[in-house]
Amino acid sequence: MNDDRNQKTAVVTGASSGIGAATARRLADDGYRVILAARRTDRIEALAAEIGGISITTDVTDAASVAALAEAVGPHLDVLVNNAGGAYGLSPVAAADTDEWRRMYDVNVLGVMQVTRAVLPALIASGAGAIVTVGSTAGLVAYEGGAGYNAAKFGVRAVMEALRLEVFDQPVRVMEIDPGMVHTEEFSLTRFGGDQARADAAYAGVAEPLVAEDIADAISWMVTRPAHVNIDRLVIKPRAQAAAHKVDRRS
Ligand code: 8X3
């Protein structure tokens, strides 16, 4: 693959929709050569063609797939956006579905670990690497029915905190963004197994939830700070959401 060091390269996982797709677009606008990594080849191919990026079909939970992504990245990488993740279900602990919990741990925690581990040498080799992992306010405060997702996103935060300590003397920033309510086409639909009515209810009455572009804008800001500026954690919520449980739904 082209390794033109005049143009910075960014990998975005989960780039097929939502925050990942918006971030890929935004980083391309910012001048990055963007590598779009996701499972759905047709979607990332189409977006890559549109923004002049590169699509690499990737399942972050699959070791061989992640190894192929790292191989395609090559020896240098400037930015990694660990965005692939998601919530499955909203069951209380008493009715928890073990498979859903496993899937959440697999994609949110092991996925972040596997991709980060695979491209960390390339990030360090760039001399000024930057990692932004998309966590969630669900990783800061638990809520009823959220335990499986909460546990996974609390886990993501732990991984980022430990990694920051481990590479403190290396030229790589370890950053995290924790969004609250973001209205994307798929997050809630995935959580509720394709039930559009339940998905829509999550945003009911909220005049202005965040949109994917708001998060992409923040990620762009984080990675484009000077290399000595580490935004450890950026918590971002719509004004209507003072806390997970305190949402203005009057509209
Ligand atoms: C998404 C935020 O509130 O649905 O990561 O858990 S929430």
Automatic annotation (TrEMBL):
Single Gene Ontology MF annotation: oxidoreductase activity, acting on the CH-OH group of donors, NAD or NADP as acceptor
InterPro entries, per the entry: NAD(P)-bd_dom_sf, Sc_DH/Rdtase_CS, SDR_fam
Keywords for this protein: Oxidoreductase
Family stated for the protein in its record: Belongs to the short-chain dehydrogenases/reductases (SDR) family.
Protein name: Oxidoreductase
Phylogenetic lineage: Bacteria, Bacillati, Actinomycetota, Actinomycetes, Propionibacteriales
